[in-house]
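User: Quick sanity check before I run a bigger batch. Here is a single chain. Can you write out its predicted 3D structure?
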Amino acid sequence: MLAPIHGNDIDDYILHYKKIIKIESKTGYKFYGFALGGLAKFKQAYQIAKIVKKIRDFNEKRKIHILGSSGIDKLLLLMYSGADSFDCNSLLRRSN
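Assistant: Done. Predicted structure follows.
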């Protein structure tokens, strides 16, 4: 199961991640990975990539899924920063 992570800015996303890690340590349950959502608010790919990289910098090796990265132009940078999977259906949704 993926743990959802949301926030209003980059620091919120990292704080949310840290709260999930704290819950995991208290319960002994470990999520398979993380799903970053609500990212369309970030107009520049480097902002999203910064979130992914900061999570990876915590020595996090689990899957990081990007929920609707809001454009194919962001995929390469997100992959390079450490994202593992995407569900970029916004372009398909808009074309319909």
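The longest helix spans residues 10-27.

User: Great, the batch can go ahead then.
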